[in-house]
Amino acid sequence: xxxxxxxxVVVTGATGNVGTSVVRLLSEDPEVGSxxxxxxxxPDRSPAKTDWAPVDLTSEQADLTxxxxxATAVIHLAWAFQPTHDPATTWRTNVLGxxxxxxxxxxxxxxxxxxxxxxxxxxxxxxxxxVDESWPxxxxxxxxxxxxxxxxxxxxxxFDRAHPRVRVVRMRPAFLFKRESASEQRRIFGGxxxxxxxxxxxxxxxxxxxxxxxxxxxxxxxAAAAYRLAVKSDVRGAFNLAADPPVDAKLLxxxxxxxxxxxxxTAARSAIAAAWGLHLxxxxxxxxxxxxxxxxxxxxxxxxxxxxxxERTAPQVLEExxxxxxxxxxxxxxxxxxxxxx
Length: 342
Known about the structure:
Blueprint: E1 7-12, H1 17-27, E2 32-39, E3 50-54, H2 64-68, E4 73-76, H3 87-107, E5 112-116, E6 130-131, H4 144-162, E7 167-173, E8 175-177, H5 182-190, E9 206-209, E10 217-219, H6 220-232, E11 237-241, H7 249-256, E12 259-262, H8 265-277, H9 285-291, E13 296-297, H10 300-306, H11 314-327
Parallel strand pairs: 1-2, 1-4, 2-3, 4-5, 5-7, 6-13, 7-11, 8-10, 9-12
């Protein structure tokens, strides 16, 4: 671990689910001298040692090189999940905006870039055993989210070769949840008018058991701890991040006291596709297809090279998130506003 004090860290997407946790942990770290949070809409309040700058990564007028000057690390988290019906719009933010960030890191001679990749970057893989970071990252091409994450993996391959002095770290976390993200994630994936209070065990006597629906989860704060460790260490390359155990219908049924009922994949997809086609559900059937094919991840490298260990199990993460849904939990940033519906 580096013992040099006063890291200056710039965080893009600093007001979202991951960004709020990363900024808080960095602001509490005595080895971090200052944090600059970039977001389209900056908050009114700041943690210690933190400043904000309004930035839209889709704008060619954004002077990212100036903002990155003097930074010891840039953590790139900014991402747009919607509109799922307009992939050209998300491409402009997620891919072209990310490329602007990478170019500015090189121009400003920032020594470390920590990029938020995802389990969604991985090619289809096994559900009965875990894969390490060498598993192919070609995504699921039909889902915009996976396609964009995979494209940026290839972009960073080129960046690595062109800028060997920049230590590039690629974080590949599982699905990330915390209590404060409940309202934001309900709006992103379930829709504005899905009432959060419906997330109560007594209202779910039966639970759909869909073949392939076995995934991993992680508390957002635990993911943020890995980002903080990456800033302070000399590592480079990719790191899987997930908590145990994997989540499937059996585990959810035990948590919620609900009985799993086998539901064919085609029936579930047809229902999601119909709701998405009618603009009743923001999450697309293409993302559903991808989730059913995501591999389980082995996190040995994060434990051994970063010294990272998640503090919460997957059931603890989901229980906290469900409580957040019921109470309309949120945080004091524009993307994270708390509300039960609407």
